[in-house]
Amino acid sequence: MGDDDDLYKETVMSRDQQLAAVSHALRQPLQSLGLYLSVLQHHLDSEDTQLISNRMRASLRRASEILDRLADHANEAVTPPLSAQRVEIKEPEKVRVSTDTIKQTTAN
């Protein structure tokens, strides 16, 4: 049963890493499209072309949001939750400071 669990975990990890890579790879072309659309929008004269441009920008925003969610999901799956990570918490050092030192520091 342990081998099946390991294989499943490896498969899920591989899938999530691929999703993260695809999301990252698609982000640059979408950003380029946004820049080109911004330049193009300054050269559009009629209301109809402005409307089409606005709809294109809205579609581009939605596609970017989908990629963001995909990347977030993949990153969450690839990175173990904080509860699964070993975290060492150290006790803070106690420091004694005189009230004169505090007054001098705050006066400057």
Helix content: over 70%
Give the number of helices.
Answer: 3
Shape: flat
Please trace the helix and strand order, writing H or E for each element: HHH
Describe the structure.
The longest helix has 40 residues, at 2-41. The radius of gyration is 26 Å and the shape is flat. The chain has 108 residues and is mainly α. 75% of the residues lie in helices and 0% in strands. The protein contains 3 helices and no strands.
For the structure shown, list the relevant keywords.
108 residues, mainly alpha, 75% helix, 0% strand, flat
Strand and helix layout:
Elements: H1 2-41, H2 47-78, H3 99-107
Helix pairs in contact: 1-2
In short:
By secondary structure, the protein is mostly helical. The chain contains three helices and no strands.
